[in-house]
Amino acid sequence: MNGRTDQPLRLGVNIDHVATLRNARGGRDPDPARAAQLAQQAGADGITLHLREDRRHIVDADLSAVMAAVTLPINLEMAATAEMQAIAVKYRPHAVCLVPERREERTTEGGLEVAGDDNRLRDYIAPLRDAGARVSLFIAPDEAQVEAAARVGAQIVELHVGAYAEHCANGQSAECDAELRRLFSAAAFAHEIGLEVHAGHGLNFNNVGPIAAIPEVVELNIGHFLIGEAVFIGLDAAIREMRRQMILARM
Ligand code: PXP
Hints:
Elements: E1 10-14, H1 16-25, H2 32-41, E2 46-50, H3 60-69, E3 74-78, H4 82-91, E4 95-98, H5 118-130, E5 134-139, H6 143-151, E6 156-160, H7 162-167, H8 174-192, E7 196-200, H9 208-212, E8 217-222, H10 224-233, H11 235-250
Parallel strand pairs: 1-2, 1-8, 2-3, 3-4, 4-5, 5-6, 6-7, 7-8
Helix pairs in contact: 2-3, 6-8, 10-11
The structure holds pyridoxine-5'-phosphate.
């Protein structure tokens, strides 16, 4: 099972920061559901949103509004709490991605600690799968975490590429190469043991290429950069350019 999956590389557009902008003023604008519709028109393969415990960007009403606004699969990112489990079971998104969450962090800083939390996560995931969701775990590119993800019943791992984005921001370096090697090897291992492989965090036009070129990766979830770029060139153009870069790298 090792190697290229022959599946096209999907782009999930994360619209959280449309809500960040709206919440800066209160009121309704800009509307995340409209962003989701535009993303769909621009050729996104899915819409990703992170309902945080503190509701700092997406709020519960956004989830239902976005689900009603598009036909694309919805990927709900959330912490593994009882409250979020009840919400996921109620709304039944296409996929649920479990992420670590700390109130004081600005964004999701690390991967989920799956190894060592097996029993709790296995029990947590079962009702999500029963509700029809594909369950993904956002983890560091680490073999022990990948193995644990399979053990607890996840179907997907999303590899956290934040360290890659950081180490490779100023071009090639030993750290950058090492981080890429970790990602390639974690992706190959995950695929080999039957997990679907996604990747995300901190991707932009400059750094998406090497990640899109990892043969086992079949989905990228990208948010902050796309929404920021939309301020300058529009959301449609930003998504289309990201897609172009992904296709180029995949060839
Ligand atoms: N994937 C996951 C699991 C995330 O939590 C996030 C947001 O932190 C992203 C992808 C998108 O990251 P970014 O907004 O940096 O593109």
